[in-house]
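Risk mitigation, structural track. In case the binding assays with adenosine-5'-triphosphate fail to produce interpretable data, a predicted complex structure has been prepared as a fallback.
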Amino acid sequence: MEIVIENLAKVYGNAHAVRDFSVTIAKGEMVALLGPSGCGKTTTLRMVAGFIKPSAGRIVVRGRDLTGLPPHKRDTGLVFQNYALFPHLTVAENIAFGLRRRGVPAAERDTRVANMIATMQLTGLADRLPRQLSGGQQQRVAVARALVINPSILLLDEPFSNLDAKLRESTGLELRRIQRELGLTSIFVTHDQNEAMAIADRIAVMNGGAVEQIGSAVDIYERPRTRFVADFIGSANFLSATVEARDGNVVTLRHGLGVSVLPVEGQAFDKGRSVTLMVRPECVAIHPAAAEAGLGTIETISYQGSSAHIFVKLRDGDRTMLVERHGRELAGLEVGKTVDLNVKAQDLTLFAA
Amino acid sequence: MTAARPVLDAPGTDGAAASSPRLIPYVPVLLFAPCFIIYAVLFIWPQLSLLATSFVDGNQWSVAHYQRFLGDGYYWELLGRTLFLGVITTVITLVLGLPVAYLLARMQSRWAGFLLVITTFPLLVSAVVRSFGWMVLFFRDGLVSKLVVALGLASPPFQLMYTMSGVVIALAQVLLPLMVLTLYGVFRSIDRDLELAAMSLGARPSLALWLVTLRLARGGILAGSLLVFSLAISTFATPSLVGGARAHVMSTAIYEQTIELLNWPFAAALSSILLVFVLVLALVYGRVLEGRGQTEARP
Ligand SMILES: Nc1ncnc2c1ncn2[C@@H]1O[C@H](COP(=O)(O)OP(=O)(O)OP(=O)(O)O)[C@@H](O)[C@H]1O
Ligand SMILES: [Mg+2]
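Fallback model:
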């Protein structure tokens, strides 16, 4: 394995910024650290870069234990959130900085810098100072500076957060293409789930310093392991349910939308237990219903072009369900109308308690 | 003014709203005016009259005072000693101030603010009082003079009072807080991530400090040095109290000419000469700063 991080932890006083962080990353893989503000993403990344000394754990890259090494001996390429370009050096000098430190001969250095400038579409900007560049150009210089040294890991801390929404997506995909081409192993931090899902091979969802789940975007969206992950990634409807019957590994659950039969594992789902069900908004079927037969009434419809979000207030209790529909399939659905909601058992995720 | 002008704006523009954009070009002038007036009345005008005084001998214009200065080796020595005092004080405060300012600026502990206050606390005590403090330590029986003898750096009857060394030590202590404050501000304005970026690209911490932080701090280091240098060559209290008549510098000589010998024109000439040095330095400083940013960093 290219990168092995084992039980990494950082404690400040009695606060755990990161706890028991473990991940193995294959060569050429891109892993995103995703989580809310303050969950320990930057701290984790900076421990890998060597700026923060871990309280516990190991970082092994290509079989070499980096844990005790200072940053300048780690061979990591780091792209900072605010780019941290050297303001007194030109674009070309910024990119050449790491090559100079490695004593690369002048001729080779010039070629590599020129190639990198071409790859990152910075042609013609070589002699500009960072302050004479747009945000997107600065971001590309920062990436170029980190890539040109052929690092064994590429680390990116919210690299796109200063770009506007359109540029963000295209820059992200462009970075992804270059990272693939060069076969770079990479960890990137973001609190933007769309970015993580669009770019990363795997996503580590963090919460309160700990990893809640690591997996592909599909895994995490369709098979969240904890309520936190389900809630943090995309939108989720939570329903409380009770176990009506258990037959081996199959349970029958009664919930606000009816009865569902699901396969389960583990002890937490015995008869009589209260559990929580999660269903994604696009998996809920909605039909207009006769006033007395419907499960709820439409409270709000938020039309967003390609899709529409429909908020339905359930008749029993005060729970509101979010239903997503195509923007063109709203016939018969209006605010105040009574509707019926249906879910399929295969779209339900079950959480104990 | 606005009311008297014909309304040229597009119909529908209301007069009050249209008048304010026209005033905008004058805003910098208006904001600048109070400071400029104070500066002109309290600095430029007295300075010019001082310069005029220096060219008066008896009742007529003359360059006699400048000839006297240039022709007398004593005054050359005086000037040399003053500039030396300026240079050595600047170097000492820079060497002592740089690490302190850097560490204070980079400290993340909540004690940082407190330590900064402690460092600059001496500024709250007048230079006269601080110089008196040094006098107590510098006399023959004073702690510091005794320590110097005990360390074998000088042989008995010895005191730091009335020596240039004494003046340098006292002046460096008086001016150090100013240097630290200036440099602190400079280092605070330099993003720590720049150093970290340099390290992640393979620079040793010391090299990262040199190639990035100190390079970027150059303007501020120059500003602090200029400040300390100008104050060191023009300050009066410390050289007068600690150096006395045996370690004369320009400022104490000017005082002597003004108060004791009542030779105001010659005192004015000495002041003008001192001012020229500060002005020349300020100009050089300006030129160096202009060139900043265009230069390449070469290891
Ligand atoms: N030097 C420090 N001393 C004490 N606590 C710290 C320190 N640095 C970070 N923390 C704490 O550690 C936790 C994790 O911080 P970190 O910067 O890693 O969060 P993050 O996930 O990057 O958040 P964001 O998305 O806001 O950048 C936070 O609760 C933070 O307050
Ligand atoms: Mg962060």
